[in-house]
């Protein structure tokens, strides 16, 4: 399993987009208030299948990062299958390292 997919970089960019402030290090969930009654919480999850499944159970939306230079791994297909079987949240695929 490959660790340098770009999860932290994407998280930093999303935070900067919402609050115009940079985050140097990510330690735990980041919650941003986007309106009077809305907030967005970003949680970075490691590449273990159990961690991904646990987090997807409470998420409204999953951004699934895939390193394009390595392609889909077996764990990715397992995760997508589990989500489909259990009717878990919407998933948006994000490809990184396309250059």
Automatic annotation (TrEMBL):
This is Uncharacterized protein. One of its GO terms (biological process) is maturation of SSU-rRNA from tricistronic rRNA transcript (SSU-rRNA, 5.8S rRNA, LSU-rRNA). It comes from Parascaris equorum (Equine roundworm). InterPro entries: Bms1/Tsr1, P-loop_NTPase. One of its GO terms (cellular component) is 90S preribosome. GO terms for molecular function: GTP binding; GTPase activity; U3 snoRNA binding. Gene3D superfamilies: P-loop containing nucleotide triphosphate hydrolases.
